[in-house]
């Protein structure tokens, strides 16, 4: 049976530490000697079972990105950035290939408006036993105005956003240029946190394996539009081409 909704265990949820909202909270990911149920490691990158599996009928894992609590994906040097994205893609796709799940989701929350609870940089890889996330995805979600391209790896700004307003897409080309893929993801996070036309301190990063293609979507986070909440009506801003040119002028050598 395939379900359409995830079920959240509130009794586990209320036990979760929140170091984003509570600055006094001890960071559980900094106490590395106390981490348990580690699945794999590569340098400072650790993949482990989620200690607070709030989603029912799911296998939740956490990917700790770095041993530096105050760092962030937008700040990583090229070597660590590529290692992290390569490691994450490998573990995500290996869970898919295991055939234990209907689908596997891979995502990152950053900042107080992202829906996350731990400030220490991390991602999540979650195997869903009875939900196929691709049923809620369509090709148009990744259509947009091209910002830059390296080989067949593309970086664009959505003109048909899933939620509305600004959504950045990165499509990994057939040549599997992970360095370009990772760099475009980082470029989007840098722009959102440093040069966005509106002050923004939060974003989500989502990965999709859809119709034999791999995509990343980077979404700046604010309060979600009531038109989307109430009616599922995404809004498209009228300055998309201005933003494309702004990013090109700041980050892309044309």
TrEMBL record:
Domain DUF4931: residue ranges: 8-130, 136-251
Name of the molecule in the record: DUF4931 domain-containing protein
Signal peptide residue numbers: none
Pfam short name (any one): DUF4931_C
InterPro entries attached to this UniProt entry: DUF4931 (IPR046322), DUF4931_C (IPR049285), HIT-like_sf (IPR036265)
């Amino acid at each position: 049976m395939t379900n359409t909704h995830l079920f959240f265990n509130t009794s586990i949820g209320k036990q979760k530490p929140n170091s984003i909202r509570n600055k006094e909270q001890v960071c559980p990911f900094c106490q590395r000697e106390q981490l348990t149920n580690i699945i794999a490691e590569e340098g400072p990158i650790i993949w482990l079972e989620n200690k607070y599996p709030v989603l029912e009928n799911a296998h939740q894992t956490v990917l700790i990105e770095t041993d530096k609590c105050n760092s962030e994906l937008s700040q990583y040097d090229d070597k660590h950035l590529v290692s992290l994205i390569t490691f994450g893609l490998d573990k995500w796709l290996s869970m898919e290939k295991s055939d234990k799940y209907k689908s596997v989701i891979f995502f990152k929350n950053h900042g107080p408006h992202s829906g996350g609870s731990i400030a220490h940089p991390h991602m999540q890889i979650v195997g869903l036993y009875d939900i196929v996330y691709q049923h809620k995805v369509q090709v148009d979600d990744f259509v947009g105005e091209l910002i830059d391209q390296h080989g067949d790896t593309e970086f664009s700004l959505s003109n048909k956003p899933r939620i509305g307003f600004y959504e950045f897409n990165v499509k990994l080309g057939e040549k599997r240029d992970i360095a370009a893929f990772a760099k475009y993801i980082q470029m989007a996070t840098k722009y959102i946190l440093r040069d966005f036309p509106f002050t923004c301190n939060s974003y989500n990063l989502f990965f999709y394996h859809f119709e034999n293609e791999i995509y990343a979507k980077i979404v700046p986070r604010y309060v979600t539009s009531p038109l989307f909440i109430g009616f599922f009506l995404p809004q498209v801003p009228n300055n998309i081409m201005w933003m494309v040119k702004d990013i090109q002028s700041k980050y892309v050598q044309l």
